[in-house]
């Protein structure tokens, strides 16, 4: 039975053991990889990406985002909760109104690089 990690171009297993070990040491831990997977999963929904784009321009409340995207406040709140759970957005309360903004500059960088990649 063939090992599922074997590579057809190699004549024997672990032809480059030193290289394999070096890469193995550099791989992030499972918890980190899980968090990264969850972060990228969030970008799999166009509504969430549209919300992030809106927040590039200004700090907005749920009703502003709902009006902008033509959606219900409930639907926007649901998406903002998902974005907040992976720390892409943050919120602040002013009286009874909660305002949302990007959590940090990394969020815009991630989106900009993704957009640059799909436009190539």
Computed structural class: mainly alpha
Which segments are poorly predicted (pLDDT under 50) over 5 or more consecutive residues? Answer: none
Beta-strand percent range? 5-15%
Average pLDDT level = 89
| CATH fold annotation | Arc Repressor Mutant, subunit A
Strand order of the largest sheet: 1-3-2
Compute the CA-based radius of gyration: 21 Å
Question: Would you summarize the structure shown here?
Answer:
This protein is mostly helical.
Describe this structure in words.
- The chain has helices at 17-26, 30-42, 46-57, 62-69, 73-85, 105-119, and strands spanning 60-61, 89-94, 97-102.
- A hairpin with a 2-residue loop joins strand 2 and strand 3.
- 59% of the residues lie in helices and 12% in strands.
- The model has no long low-confidence stretch (mean pLDDT 89).
- Helix 4 crosses helix 5 (73-85).
- It has one domain (17-119): Orthogonal Bundle (Arc Repressor Mutant, subunit A), CATH 1.10.10.10.
- It has 120 residues and is mainly α.
- The protein is built from six helices and three strands.
- The longest helix has 15 residues, at 105-119.
- It has a three-stranded antiparallel β-sheet with strand order 1-3-2.
- It is elongated.
Main attributes of the structure:
120 residues; Arc Repressor Mutant, subunit A; 3 strands; 12% strand; elongated
Ordered list of secondary-structure elements with their pairings:
Layout: H1 17-26, H2 30-42, H3 46-57, E1 60-61, H4 62-69, H5 73-85, E2 89-94, E3 97-102, H6 105-119
Antiparallel strand pairs: 1-3, 2-3
């Amino acid at each position: 039975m063939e090992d599922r990690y074997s590579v057809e171009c190699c004549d024997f297993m672990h032809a480059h053991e030193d290289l394999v070990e070096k890469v193995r040491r550099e791989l992030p831990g499972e918890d980190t990889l899980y968090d990264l997977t969850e972060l990228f999963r969030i970008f799999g929904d166009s509504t969430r990406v549209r919300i992030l784009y809106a927040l590039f321009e200004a700090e907005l409340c749920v009703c502003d985002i709902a009006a902008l995207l033509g959606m219900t406040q409930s639907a926007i709140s649901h998406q903002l909760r998902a974005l907040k759970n992976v720390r892409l957005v943050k919120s602040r309360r002013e009286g009874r109104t909660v305002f949302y903004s990007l959590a940090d500059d990394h969020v815009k960088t991630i989106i900009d690089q993704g957009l640059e990649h799909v436009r190539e």
